[in-house]
Target: L-ascorbate oxidase
Amino acid sequence: MWRILISLALSLRCVKSSAGCAIHQDDSFQPDHILRVTAQDYTEACTTRYSALVNGSSPGPEIRLKEGQVSWIRVYNDMKHENTTMHWHGLTAFTAPFSDGTPAASQWPIPPGHFFDYEVKPEIGSAGTYFYHSHVGFQAVTAKGPLIVDSNHPPPIHYHAERTIILSDFFNETDKQIIDGLTSSNFTWSGETGAILVNGKSRQATNSTGSCQLASISIEPGLSYRLRFIGATALSFISLAIESHNVSIIEADGHFTKPLETDFLQIGSGQRYSVLLTAKSERELKRAKTRQFYIQLTTLARPETLTNFAVLNYLDGEAPDLRTVPSPPPLPEAKTIQGWLDYELEPLQSDNEFPGLEEVTRRIIIDVHQNVSDHVIWLQNGYDWVQNFRQSPYLVDMYNGRLQTGEMYQRAISRGDGFDNITRTFPAKIGEVLEIVWQNQGTFTNGGVDAHPFHAHGRHVYDIGGGDGQYNATENERRLKLSQPIQRDTSILYRYREKTKPLAPSGWRAWRIRVTDSGVWMYHCHILQHMVMGMQTVFLFGDLEDINAQSGPVDAGYLTYGGSAYGNSTYSPNVRHYFD
Ligand SMILES: *[C@@H]1O[C@H](CO)[C@@H](O)[C@H](O)[C@H]1NC(C)=O
Ligand SMILES: *[C@@H]1O[C@H](CO)[C@@H](O)[C@H](O)[C@H]1NC(C)=O
Ligand SMILES: *[C@@H]1O[C@H](CO)[C@@H](O)[C@H](O)[C@H]1NC(C)=O
Ligand SMILES: *[C@@H]1O[C@H](CO)[C@@H](O)[C@H](O)[C@H]1NC(C)=O
Ligand SMILES: *[C@@H]1O[C@H](CO)[C@@H](O)[C@H](O)[C@H]1NC(C)=O
Ligand SMILES: *[C@@H]1O[C@H](CO)[C@@H](O)[C@H](O)[C@H]1NC(C)=O
Ligand SMILES: *[C@@H]1O[C@H](CO)[C@@H](O)[C@H](O)[C@H]1NC(C)=O
Ligand SMILES: *[C@@H]1O[C@H](CO)[C@@H](O)[C@H](O)[C@H]1NC(C)=O
Ligand SMILES: *[C@@H]1O[C@H](CO)[C@@H](O)[C@H](O)[C@H]1NC(C)=O
Ligand SMILES: *[C@@H]1O[C@H](CO)[C@@H](O)[C@H](O)[C@H]1NC(C)=O
Ligand SMILES: [Cu+2]
Model:
């Protein structure tokens, strides 16, 4: 009797709203995947640090989704004092509006002790390599894991097996210490990365004691492998190469590319590449006189260079040597290759959707430089964006009618740079075709320049290249005519030099995108330190009418912090099923 009454009362919550709403009770709903975020002491690279973790480890478990299929991922915030969210890095999440995992932008964060059910549906054709990570504060330094989207069809390029290789950084200070230092008027840098972790493992270059080991990737002779490299670093831009092995790039950020042979990769934070590796034959291994080869990883474009190693082994059950750090390094020292693969890497299948110059309706130039106000900040067209800039998320305000998108658009256009400096957004209308140019500049204080991996949420952008100095559309159009741009979600704004004059142009990166999916999409540098220091922007596509037309009505439970769309141990949430 009680059961019936309770379930009646619960179902009333949903009956009031329109179709598509469901109560996620344990006996009626099972998520496809569960991730639990905790904060605890955790040891990496022989050092213990208080860290945000997914399922108790870093990286967290690999999740596999199917393209074209709806998956529900339940994320529990088991931390006592911190909010969290989960972002599905690289996935277009455009019709489940609250599922992109950006606090203050597309959703209220998950309060401590609560959980949120993310609805994700990878588009057909998006099979590839991704990752998930928290989007709150500095949590993503450890709170992340691989996310692979599989297709129902065999991949267009044949391989026997695959391996996931996820790269991260190690910092010995806690997230809080790092954020406090970066945002303090007494600026304190986080320090450079302590280690490049490969699948969570590393042995520091100088350390001959300690029990930590190098990561090991085991393969068998004669087979072909797809190695999925995931740049899940906080800061590091990494050059990596495998001793005595060349590879062919076959995927960049979830899109197959024409195979391109290379003897090294450059991976920035947020980028992914799949490469095809043909394992050596028994005969080749005999000739090489070893069954163990080093993967050499080096940080680029930072004041200090760090080189770490992992091991590719053919040992079949025999234990590889994961203690020895080769000295001197077996491969030559890596240097930044400016503009690596720009205009060279092409889509596997030619793409008729690429918007030509004649289709571009608006060019938005975003000048990025560092300055000092009461603390050190990174600015885009003169403004920083940090998580506590907003009282409430843009998407929530849009649904509440508190975001005057018409006025925002007018202000942005009349300023001339496409930026609404009141809401700190770049508003755009559905149907526009934007050309977005990130223009690197010397810092206002001393002309220093950094490299930045810029990341786009939502639909992927066409990367139309990069170069030194100031962007020149005429010149770039000439180069574009000879190449086929690829789509990606993260590309590097190179620095070209360590220092220039304050505000002098020193490199650009350009993108094109058709504005098709209404929503709130963050475009930001993927270096966590820079994000904390303001290097983030918000693109707002469409208005309330567009988003209603696309995603249907909203439930009130999404519109308040800890609202009824967020569950806890005693409460099953009211959840809208956007794809039903
Ligand atoms: C994460 O841990 C929970 C239990 O704590 C488990 O149910 C879930 O399957 C794990 N997730 C993955 C992706 O392995
Ligand atoms: C969690 O998020 C809410 C809503 O944005 C905010 O008011 C609160 O300060 C946050 N808590 C922490 C510990 O950051
Ligand atoms: C972290 O490492 C740096 C050197 O990389 C050192 O100066 C600092 O004392 C360490 N901090 C902690 C909290 O261990
Ligand atoms: C500023 O930071 C330094 C460490 O970077 C510390 O030694 C110093 O005491 C701090 N000063 C103030 C006023 O907080
Ligand atoms: C080497 O690692 C050990 C722990 O395994 C640590 O105690 C020691 O400080 C490290 N030394 C250096 C130089 O990093
Ligand atoms: C790898 O490619 C480089 C040139 O890119 C070439 O010099 C080298 O011989 C190749 N190595 C192998 C093992 O194929
Ligand atoms: C840099 O900051 C100073 C004050 O902190 C300000 O006067 C100046 O206009 C800023 N310049 C730029 C280009 O951001
Ligand atoms: C916004 O930009 C306009 C025009 O550039 C300027 O006059 C105004 O002071 C700015 N407002 C804010 C809040 O920054
Ligand atoms: C852009 O490049 C074109 C072609 O090289 C050149 O004629 C033009 O002067 C350049 N524009 C600027 C502003 O430098
Ligand atoms: C769980 O959620 C319900 C409904 O929002 C709320 O009344 C209750 O206080 C929450 N419990 C905890 C422990 O936060
Ligand atoms: Cu940056």
